[in-house]
Amino acid sequence: GSVRETINSAVRNHRGSPLTYATWDRASQTVQVGAWAETTVSGTCELYVSQGEVTVTSSAESTADVSTMTCGELSADLASMSSGPWQAVVTFTTESESGTSAPQTIEVVR
């Protein structure tokens, strides 16, 4: 589906990969997000940060241990984007599983 469908689905379902933190870093002008999932298979994590019709994305390979998979730190560059509230959602995909985090609002202040 589209990015908008992914975010709307996350808003409805509130399930999948928990966000451990989601913060605005004024110095680097980036949103920084950490996430993990209850799976022992590595895969790909994707960060979607959106405001209205604008979405900024980033992705990283995840790492797995004996009980969880972690996305590490994902960041999205918002240097040229608007201030105000943005929604962050992380998705993860492995060969056999996928999930989406509940959305978290991040306040971007210049």
- How many β-strand runs? 9
Shape: elongated
Order of helices and strands, N to C?
HEEEEEEEEE
- Radius of gyration (CA) equals 13 Å
> Count of helices?
1
Mean pLDDT: 85
* Helical proportion, percent range: 10-25%
User: What fraction strand?
Assistant: over 45%
**Regions with little confidence, pLDDT below 50 for 5+ residues:** 9-15
How far apart are the termini?
A: 32 Å
Largest sheet: 5 strands, antiparallel
Give the class from helix and strand content and strand pairing: mainly beta
Question: What report would you give on this structure?
Answer:
By secondary structure, the protein is mostly beta strands. The chain is 10% helix and 55% strand. It has one helix and nine strands, in the order H-E-E-E-E-E-E-E-E-E. Strands 3, 4, 7, 8 and 9 form a five-stranded antiparallel beta sheet that branches. A four-stranded antiparallel beta sheet has the order 1-2-6-5, with no helix packed on it. The chain is elongated. The relative contact order is 0.30. Mean pLDDT is 85; it is low at 9-15.
